[in-house]
Amino acid sequence: MYQLSRRPIIIEGNQVALGPLVEEDLEQFWFWVNDKEVTQYLSDNLFLNVFTRTMEEKWLKKVLEGTDLTLTFAILIKPEYKLIGVISLDRIDWRDRNAMLGVFIGDKSLWGKGLGSEAIILLLDYAFNILGLLKVSLHVLEYNKRAIRAYKKVGFSESGRLKKHKYRGGRFWDVIIMEIFAEEFKERYRSRVATKCSDLFMKK
Asked: Which of 86, 108, 171, 192 has the fewest CB atoms found within 10 Å of its own CB?
């Protein structure tokens, strides 16, 4: 597995695995962040910008250096462990035990196959069972119907809206706020982390 993935695997699912980003990911991310078909669905401002290779190189360098407030993972499809996207916990608040989730599948040929949903479940397993967070939230544009369905299927629920918050395609759109709590997640899913680290998570 290690030779196939060319990077360590942090947590593994049925179809995808999560691992750290590496310098070799730069070229692929550079193409993805300049693909408007991909970035039209993201709630940040990637859609508005044009990214030079140097700009993307600076972003990746910052990610590789790491920070206590963000954890970023490569989404890798099995069995080749090919890079297909990225997922992250952002604005981690260690005192109040919450964070924001960000995710995108850059490989458009793999949209609608449930890979993003599985990656989210793996990340939430890490967030709740390794980091001990209480809640994970996300922002999604109201027209991103596919993502909203996926988030609801995973277990997120809408908790509010930022009305007419993003300007896209000649009009303003709401940003939907969704969230999931640790107890809700643990009721729905068996922890792969707990299974892998069985001594650490042994029953009292």
From this structure: 171
For residue range 116-174, what is the model confidence (pLDDT) as tens digits? Answer: 999 999 999 999 999 999 999 999 999 999 999 999 999 999 999 999 999 999 999 99
Q: In the structure encoding, which two tokens stand for residue 26, read together?
A: 């730069």
Task: State how many domains the chain has.
Answer: 1
Within a domain: 168: yes
Residue 204 lies in a domain: no
Q: What is the pLDDT of residue 1?
A: 38
List alpha helices for the chain, DSSP H. 2-5, 26-33, 36-39, 53-65, 115-125, 145-154, 182-188, 192-196
Note the pTM of the prediction, 2 decimals: 0.93
Classify residue 99: in a domain, yes or no: yes
CA distances from 189 to 28, 106, 155, 185 (A): 32, 26, 10, 6
Indicate which residues carry an active-site annotation. 151
**How confident is the model over 73-97, as a mean pLDDT?**
96
Helix, strand, or coil (residue 83) = strand
Domain residues for the domain of 19 are: 2-196
Give the DSSP letter of residue 111: T
Q: Is 201 part of a structural domain of the chain?
A: no
- Domain containing residue 86: CATH number: 3.40.630.30
